[in-house]
Specification:
This protein is α/β, with parallel strands linked by helices and 318 residues long. It has 2 domains: 30 residues; 276 residues, 4-Layer Sandwich (Purple Acid Phosphatase, chain A, domain 2), CATH 3.60.21. The protein contains 7 helices and 14 strands. The strands form 2 sheets. A 7-stranded mixed β-sheet has the order 2-1-13-3-4-5-6. A 7-stranded mixed β-sheet has the order 7-8-9-10-12-11-14. A hairpin with a 2-residue loop joins strand 7 and strand 8. Helix 3 runs parallel beside helix 5. It is globular, with a radius of gyration of 23 Å. The N and C termini lie far apart (71 Å). The chain binds fe (ii) ion (FE2). The site of fe (ii) ion (FE2) has 7 residues, from helix 4.
Length: 318
């Protein structure tokens, strides 16, 4: 008589089956988290920032200088609960300035969405924006963005520097054009800027711009000496985005797009350069985030009208 063996599996095949099942379950779980949960868990990151970089007593109720909110990589295509939550948080915080560090949009059809989003923010708070690579890629020009920002007490800074008066003091903000799709030019941006006591902040969508700053600042210094003009007060803080914090970080691996350079997220402090903060941003083009929750950064500048210089110490933190 022949023995029926249908359905019987060897222990090895059974173990392999459960391993594959376990891995598939873990991948499915990670995907569900990365698509359905993590993109909607916004972190509000506070830092008090002075000439020596960020300090740990951020979030203190006593404000000295202007408070600045950074919104990066919104990639707005609709106004959802995340955006409403962010607007609510900002309106409670009552900042002195809101900066948008690029990739606010990645499709022309979303221009009316940005118009509605800007209208939700306090009309009295100045809003300054720089262009990102995605705006250019989508065929959105500086003038498209300017039209929307200017009707919401805002400006788009493309190689341009402005001094903003806030209730907590003056701030100089310089915006560079995008590194990948534009023509960043710090010398042009600072052409008319002189030495002044206001803290100076640089907005640059791609953090790789930080590695060009040393040469740009040296060039400006040489030109000013040749012209017999005083040097502009250098920026003490650079705010960037673009990387999405790696966006999908698994097995210790992080991928960042061209234009990120050696930067991924958080703080980078080096001697002779402005402190750099790279935001993880808020939105995405491909709707998944793993190990990089959306982030709204809030900076409280130390002191009122205190001139600041790049940090003397070399530190880096995430
Ligand atoms: Fe970008």
């Amino acid at each position: 008589m022949k023995r029926c063996t249908r359905g019987a599996k060897s222990p090895t095949v059974a173990n392999l089956g459960s391993l594959v099942g376990g891995v598939s379950g873990a991948v499915a779980g990670a995907m569900a988290w990365g698509v359905g949960i993590e993109p909607y868990r916004v972190a509000y990151r506070h830092a008090r920032v002075g000439p020596q970089g960020p300090s740990t007593n951020a979030g203190s109720p006593t404000r000295e200088g202007p408070t600045i909110v950074q919104l990066s990589d919104l990639h707005l295509h609709r106004i959802g609960p995340v955006h409403e939550e962010i607007v609510g948080h900002i309106s409670e915080l009552r900042p002195d300035l809101i900066v948008f560090t690029g990739d606010t949009l990645h499709h022309r059809s979303a221009l009316p969405v940005l118009e509605r989003f800007l209208a939700l923010l306090d009309a009295e708070v100045p809003k300054l924006a720089v262009m990102g690579n995605w705006e250019y890629a989508a065929g959105i020009g500086k003038h498209d963005m300017e039209r929307l920002f200017e009707q919401a007490t805002g400006m788009v800074l493309v190689n341009r520097s402005v001094r903003v008066g806030t209730p907590a003091g003056l701030v100089r903000v310089t915006g560079l054009d995008d590194l990948l799709k534009g023509k960043p030019d710090l010398a042009a941006a600072l052409h008319d800027v002189e030495e002044e006591p206001a803290p100076h902040i640089l907005l640059a969508h791609c953090p790789a711009q930080q590695d060009r700053l040393r040469a740009s600042l040296r060039g400006i210094e040489a030109d000013r000496r040749a012209e017999g003009r005083p040097l502009p007060t250098p920026p003490f803080l650079t705010l960037s985005g673009h990387t999405h914090g790696g966006q999908v970080n698994v097995f210790g691996l992080t991928w960042t797009p061209k234009g990120s350079g050696r930067y991924v997220r958080g703080w980078y402090l080096e001697r002779g350069l402005p402190g750099l903060f790279v935001s993880r941003g808020i939105g995405t083009v491909i709707p998944i985030r793993l190990g990089s929750t959306p982030e709204v950064a809030i900076f409280e500048l130390e002191g009122r009208d205190s001139s600041t210089r790049p940090p003397k110490t070399r530190r880096a933190s995430q």
